[in-house]
């Protein structure tokens, strides 16, 4: 009578652990990227806006000061930017190709 026990050394158990680790990693990445919407609008942090537009935080501050970008001031020093405001800014400054 052969007795097969599942142990952590068994290849099928190792594959299951690897698969679980991949799922955990995918969930962690999804949670980091997930931005819940507020009133059907997604809001981005200043850091995210700077990264997307490839600008410095000082340039972003200038955009705020001059009214070039819509923002919400949350707690004195925290600003949120509606995603639609970024789209408006990009569309307003779009220069079509001259063909």
Summarize this structure as a short list of keywords or feature phrases:
single chain, elongated, 99 residues, 3 strands, mainly alpha, three-stranded antiparallel beta sheet
In words, what does this structure look like?
There is one protein chain. This protein is mainly alpha-helical. It has a domain at 43-92. Helix content is 51%, strand content 9%. It is built from 4 helices and 3 strands; from the N terminus they run H-E-H-H-E-E-H. It has helices at 11-33, 46-53, 57-65, 83-92, and strands at residues 43-45, 72-73, 79-82. A 3-stranded antiparallel β-sheet has the order 1-3-2. The N and C termini lie far apart (81 Å). The mean pLDDT is 85.
Please bin the fraction of helical residues: 40-55%
Q: Determine the N-to-C terminus distance.
A: 81 Å
Strand content: 5-15%
Question: How would a crystallographer describe the biggest sheet?
Answer: 3 strands, antiparallel
Which structural class is indicated by helix and strand composition? mainly alpha
Provide a count of the helices. 4
Order of helices and strands: HEHHEEH
CA gyration radius, whole angstroms: 24 Å
Give me the side-by-side strand order of the main sheet: 1-3-2
The count of β-strands is: 3
Could you name the ranges where pLDDT drops below 50 across 5 or more consecutive residues? Answer: none
Average pLDDT over all residues: 85
Shape: elongated
